[in-house]
Amino acid sequence: MEYRIRDVGGKKYLYIDARDWGEGASIADYPSVMRRVVETLMDVDADVLVISDIYDHIYDEKQTRMLKEIAEIARRFEQEGFWSLSSVKFGEGCEDALGDGPAMIVKITHDLWLSDPVAAYVKLLGLIKQAKERYRVAPDSVKECYKKYLQVLERIKLLMDTASLISSARAYMVRMKKVPRGRLFYSLVFQPQLKPSFLGSRLISVSEEDLEIQDQYSVGDAEVIIYKHPDHVEPLYYVYLPEYSLPADQYFIMEKVKELVSKYAPKNAILSSKAPSRKQFLRLYENTIRDVARQYDVELSSDDVSNLARILVRHTVGYGVLEILLSDKRLTDIYVDSPLGMKPIYVVHSEHGQCQTNIVFSDEEARSFVSKLRAMSGRPFDEAHPVLDYDLPDMYARVAVIGPPLSPDGIAFAFRLHKPTPWTLPQFIDRKMLSPLAAGLLSFFVDAQTTMLVAGSRGAGKTSLMTSLILEIPQNQRILTQEDTLEIPVPEIKRLGYNIQRLKTKSPIGGGSAGELPPEDALRTALRLGDSAIIIGEVRSREAKVLYEAMRVGAAGNVVMGTIHGDSAYSVWDRVVNDLGVPTTSFKATDIVVVNAPIRFSGSLRRHRRTICITEIRKHWKSDPLEEGGFLDLMRYSAKEDELLLLEDQIKESDLFAKIMDLRGLSYEDIWAEIRARAYTKQYLVDLKNKHGVSELLEATYTVPAHNKFLLLKERSIEQFGSVDYSWVLDEWKRWVEEFLKRDVLAKKEAKKG
Question: What is the mean pLDDT of the chain?
């Protein structure tokens, strides 16, 4: 019998190959299967048992422990001589008196105990009862025979009683008031988790009786259900994939097809959802599935063929089970911790926070995934290079892989998912991350070509907010973005009509590609590429000095934005000056610091992203902006009201507002009329979305044309009236939105229903 021991998550997994057994691989159904397993466990130690045929029958630690106890007791039976008639002695003349009793001991302890221990125990109880009755009426000449016989039977019972399987069987018999017939009891105890053998990851099964459904939606051909568990702090994110619930004949076809195609597959097939090789493999699998199904006389519909081909592609040239998680754009992070196999994958959901999934990623699948990443990136991953940081093509995600010696428990992964379409200010208003007035104020600052840093902790929404502000830049201006990790959806922004060019710099971890420039060199190049708005993905290194030099001398010539880690304007100043080495006077080139933070209302476990402060950096201070009044909060968050409040008294002291009034010839009232008009347009779209239930209305596909129309109407008002008549602008703008945007999005909604 073929078997192997593998370390999975620090546990010893015993894999037994049952493909040639004929009778199947179920311990509950087949005595011969149980016997094979117990005999194997007498020789090897394991924590988890896996019997493989078309499926992997996974018996968890509790079930495996029960089987190990049966095996250990069998070993004791063998050692104490119960497996041999010649080894069990009862004295002279006892053979005739005891009859077939000694032979029954061998049968119970050897044949029956290994294949049906409950039946062995019941049989033993019958022998003990019979022996006691015979001892009571036996003549004195053979009483000693029965006494020794009873002692042997009691010894066997004593050993059997130590097995938890027998304890469970006794409890069952007391509760049901009957002896279990056939193998019914085993079907209650040994219910394995079934997993198709060609799949690496396994799905945890759990009783759904005590679970409360929080959310439910589809991702591709998979169903996602988010549960609330009464005993779990985090929600449960459960994925239900078609490949884990197919008929056995379809698994058989997939196994055969996979074997055939693997002989001809290129070793480094491109790992991409849109790569030519993926489409080629899809056609290859479809054709091969049809051929194999005809060969083995398995009836498959055209939908069956397409489904099986798609599943095979996902688990060969695709990302496997991870592909479903990476395709769920409601997720922001995916964590696969080491040692693999010990704990399920964790995800961070944009609406439900951190969730535990039902997916256990295997070590074998992880090694295969890393091999593909190495082939795609051209970067090493070994003990000398234990970090691999890479942007996944076509999945809008970045993966950071760590391994030994950095990760002593083995390979681990962290995925950061990016929204494929840009976030918009109306979407943030809808999610209460910021108020309409704050959105109008930030939009105005972008139009006024200020320098702005968006600060916050990891996952606070810094890049998302900055991306939404990029969409507020007028489309007649050029934009340059610079990132070491491609999080800003530049291709989508370009598709929306923006003149935008991105620069990819060397990653601070994982080495990057040989041809990638350091961030500071790339920024110097960007400053020579003409008058452009400059967007820095994250200010974290030596590029900060170059950036501030450019801002001080006006070399940027336009709006400058970047993200940075920090929880306040003061922490941003401290990081830029003390950590990144920018002179404190140069920091004054920053006009605005926007701070985001996750808020836990009333100490709740759930986190809600909020913009908590919009701070102006004033210019009169010399060394310490906090002590010298260099920070002027324009808006500040109130958790009690869950709103970003305008600090009107402080705004009157704003140097930035005074500067904009001088440069643009505007009054204080003019500025606020425009800010409120911009806020109104954002809120109007949110109200329309909520009224008609069309979330698409807040996507950039609609908000960008709406913002462009607002700017064009402003321009027309100036041409017609000599100034901006915001009442006229907003009336015309609303008429246009109702006539074009609303009608279009509602028509598409109806078309989907049809």
Answer: 88
Indicate the pTM of the whole model: 0.76
Helices (DSSP H) in 652-699: which residue ranges? 655-664, 668-692
Cα(31)–Cα(562) distance, rounded to whole angstroms?
68
Question: Closest by alpha carbon to 455, among 615, 628, 679?
Answer: 615
pLDDT band at 645 (very low <50, low <70, confident <90, very high): very high
Closest by CA to 745, choosing from 689, 705, 686, 704, is: 689
Of the candidates 3, 8, 21, which has an alpha carbon nearest to the alpha carbon of residue 48?
8
Residue 267 pLDDT class (50, 70, 90 cuts): very low
HSE toward the beta carbon, residue 705, CA cutoff 13 A: 13
Q: Give me the pLDDT at residue 268, please.
A: 46
Q: Which two tokens stand for residue 287?
A: 């054709």
Residue 556 has pLDDT above 70, yes or no: no
Gap between the Cα atoms of 161 and 630, Å rounded:
79
Q: Which of 555, 691, 568, 705 is nearest to 625 (CA)?
A: 568
Kindly give the residue spans of alpha helices, DSSP state H, lying in 80-191.
94-98, 101-106, 113-115, 117-137, 140-160, 164-176, 184-189
Q: Is the dihedral of CA 667, 669, 672, 678 positive or negative?
A: negative
Are the CB atoms for 336 and 308 separated by under 8 Å? Answer: no
pLDDT category of residue 22 using cuts at 50, 70 and 90: confident
Query: What is the C-alpha separation between 688 and 683, in angstroms, rounded?
Result: 9
In order of start, what are the domains of the chain with their CATH numbers?
A: 3-189 (no CATH), 243-417 (3.30.450.380), 425-665 (3.40.50.300)
Rounded to a whole number, what is the distance in angstroms from the first to the last CA of the chain? 57
Going by C-alpha positions, the residue among 590, 602, 594, 589 that lies closest to residue 567 is 594
Task: Show the 3-state SS of 218-236.
Answer: EECCEEEEEEECCCCCCCE
Q: Extract the tokens encoding 648.
A: 């009107």
Position 376 pLDDT exceeds 90: no
Please give the single-letter amino acid code of residue 286.
Answer: E
pLDDT of residue 173: 85
Q: Bridge-partner residues for 643, per DSSP?
A: 638
DSSP 569-638: HHHHHHIIIIIT---TTGGGG--EEEEEEEE-GGG-S--EEEEEEEEEE-SS-SS-TTTTT-EEEEEEEE
Angle between helices 140-160 and 61-79 (to 10 degrees): 150
Residue 419: pLDDT above 60? yes
Q: Rg for the chain (alpha carbons), in Å? A: 35
Residue 606 has pLDDT above 80, yes or no: no
Token pair of 23 as six digits? 């009778």
